[in-house]
Amino acid sequence: MRSDKKCSRMPLVAAMLKYKYDDVYPLHTPGHKGGRGMQRLLRQELGAGVQMDVSLMSELDDIHEPVSSIKEAQQLAAATYGSDACFWAVNGTTQAIHAMLLTALKPGEKVLLPRNAHRSVAGGLILGDIEAVYIKPEYNCEFGIQTQVTAAAVEQALAQDSDIKAVLLTSPSYYGIAAPLQEIAAICHRRGIVLLVDEAHGPHLGFSDLLPPSALQGGADACAQSTHKLLGAMTQCSMLHVQGERLDLQRAADVMSLLTTTSPNYLLMASLDAARYQVQQHGRQMAETALQAAEKLRQLCAGMQGLKVLEQTDCGAFLLDRTKVTVNFSGWGYTGIEAGEKLRQAGVAVELVDESNVLFLVTYADNTEDFDAALERIEAVLADMQKNKRSAKIIKAVQLPPPAQSGLGLRSVFNSDKINIRLQDAAGCICGEQVSFYPPGIPVLLPGEIITEEIIAYCRKMKELGLPVSGPADSNLELIRVVKP
After folding, report:
1. Residues 332, 390: contact at Cβ < 8 Å?
2. Which of 19, 83, 136, 284 could form a disulfide with 241 if both were Cys (CB 3.0 to 4.6 A apart)?
3. CA atoms within 13 Å, Cβ hemisphere of 296
4. Per 3-state DSSP, what percentage of the chain is helix, strand, and coil (rounded to 5)?
5. How confident is the model at residue 394 (pLDDT cuts 50, 70, 90)?
6. Bridge-based pairing state of the strands 85-89 and 131-135
7. How far is the C-alpha of 87 from the C-alpha of 239, rounded, in Å?
8. What pairing do the DSSP bridges indicate for beta strands 222-225 and 194-199?
9. Is the omega angle on the peptide bond into residue 66 within 30 degrees of 0, that is, cis?
10. Would you say residue 396 has pLDDT above 70?
11. Cis status, amide bond into 180, omega within 30 of 0
12. Going by C-beta distance under 8 Å and a sequence separation of 6 or more, which residues neighbour residue 202?
């Protein structure tokens, strides 16, 4: 990661500010004309920033054919992270994941990926008409979570299917557990296979040895990062990084252009420029600050008898990003959903809840008095829960069901006629839509998979726990779309 003076500028931000202070009257889009015509309340809340909601003016460059400020800003991002090329994804990491798949694979080719890959991966498979081969991650019974894929499992899967052209892994996981990327990259590259990494939860990695190495440091050929999740970019802002000679940079650029709106929001792109500058200048300090804040929360929770906090020792050979604080409430007889609701009632919103756990996401921005005040609220909630714990009732986490058997390809399902039937009557049918419980957005069913009684029972269990369902047309999952016989 670079921190030299060549990276010490924000070219797009500078260009936008110059345009703003040139006091040019905007006879161009957007229609609110620098906030003049925006609804009063929204204009008031957004403040002066709305004046920088600008359009495709020549001096502000074009993300589809960058030649000036955007080109330089993306080059600086590549230099900062150590990639050969960086592409901004203003449609989030979903766009970057789709682009990785379409860059690396041709229609009909195979990709090896974990069954708990994020739901966005399925979209890339449909767009690229790519076939998935699934691999099972390791499982932590105490926390009831899947951890990571082992290098041995990847090597075995590749040995069994010589047609696999790429491997796509999620690292770190939502819970902050990182895969052994360096070892897996060596396995892939010996076979001429590209390694793609969904690094949505790792844009802060690589700037401090106190955290796991980044995907690029691990040898990934490409990685997709959610800059907005843990750094200073606005929501929806992500980056795609490509390195090495195994992927065609021009094809990556063509695919990103294909997937990117022709009217990108310049405020979003400016926040990417600024977030890159910030982490390039202060990345190590930001990591240390985040870890210090996380340690306060970690010690608070670990000090409560009966609570279990996910630690490095729980991750085996996998590394843990300790800015993610996962707390298991099953020892007190509470679900993670119940604990999350109690915290929300006290004014603390958490990142994720599942059957047994609450995940707190801590960043460099939590070095504040507000965070310390939040810790006091958390302590009060935990003290009350401990006082009223249900010690006789230990909740056992339900592991995700084994992968369903594929009955039809994703692209074929997408183009097939579908009908709605009751979930309870769907056993044996081919699923016509994706079913996930969110968070963390891991598909239980993908289009084309055969619905089983086991999967139906699992869905009922998740609904009973109160986890919101994502993907189906019927958000209550009373009905499910299946391929018409």
Report:
1. yes
2. 83
3. 20
4. 40, 15, 45
5. low
6. unpaired
7. 6
8. parallel
9. no
10. no
11. no
12. 171, 172, 178, 212, 214, 215, 223, 225, 230, 321
295 has a pLDDT exceeding 90: yes
Mean pLDDT of 299-320: 97
List residues bridging with 345 in a β-sheet: none
Residue 4: CB partners within 8 Å, gap ≥ 6?
A: none
Q: Which of 457, 466, 449 is nearest to 423 (CA)?
A: 457
Confidence of residue 392 (pLDDT cuts 50, 70, 90): very low
Helix runs in 151-259, H state only: 151-160, 181-190, 227-230, 249-259
Q: Radius of gyration (Cα) for the chain, nearest Å? A: 23
Question: Exposed/middle/buried for 3, CB within 10 Å: 0-12, 13-18, 19+?
Answer: middle
Contact predicate 241/96, CB 8 Å = no
Distance CA 141, CA 402 (A): 15
Each residue of 2-56: pLDDT tens digit?
555 566 799 999 999 999 899 889 898 999 999 999 999 999 999 988 888 988 7
User: Of 39, 210, 235, 226, whose CA–CA distance to 120 is shortest?
Assistant: 226
The yes-or-no verdict on residue 313 having pLDDT over 70 is: yes
Quote the CA–CA distance of 419 and 58 in Å, as a whole number: 49
DSSP E strands, 266-412: 308-309, 319-320, 324-328, 352-353, 357-361
Closest CA to 274 of 49, 37, 25: 49
- Check residue 69 and report its DSSP letter: H
Structure token pair of residue 49: 């920033």
Q: Measured between alpha carbons, how far is 479 from 424 in angstroms, rounded to an integer? A: 8
3-state SS, one letter per residue, for 248-264 = CHHHHHHHHHHHCCCCC
**Structure token pair of residue 232:** 């200073």
- Written as six digits, the tokens of 360 are 């707190």
pLDDT (0 to 100) of residue 466: 80
